[in-house]
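Let's practice the habit of predicting before peeking. Look at the sequence and jot down your guess about where helices and strands might fall. Then scroll down.
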Amino acid sequence: MSLLLNGSKTMTIAGTEMQCLEIYTGESYTLPFTFTYANSVPINCTGWTLSTTAKFYNVDTVTYPSADSVDLGNLTLNSPQPNANAYTISTAFTTAASGIGYLYIGNNITNTANVGIPQIQLANNTANSTLVIVTLGVSRVDALSSLTDFNKEPIGIIVRYQ
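Done guessing? Here is the structure:
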């Protein structure tokens, strides 16, 4: 099963490869996605359930060694983490039979008025960024065993000051 987000780059954190998108403070994004088989054929996701969670990290450096990759330096998990009610991240299928849906990242993901959400101080700089690892949870019933499978699809979102 593959999850394809439009406009994403590849990022590797601790050996885990994930899709990465860059967003700017004060903007919201609706990110279309498609679940496909390895041969790019869409997966029928009827009956699947989606959920989201997020973890916030401070990033010391961000570099772009190629057009489709990102290197991050010195990640520090924010503590405490923001309350999940302080920001908006949601997901849903628009056409489940074709595996098509969206992930919505609200503009309040950088709302510094909310306690715990990291404040980005340096404009137009590769330092002092925030990384939000959004985990898209996918729950589905396995056709063979009739047991519920739960997969986690990590998505890295680099929040930058604009």
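How did you do? The chain has a mean pLDDT of 77.
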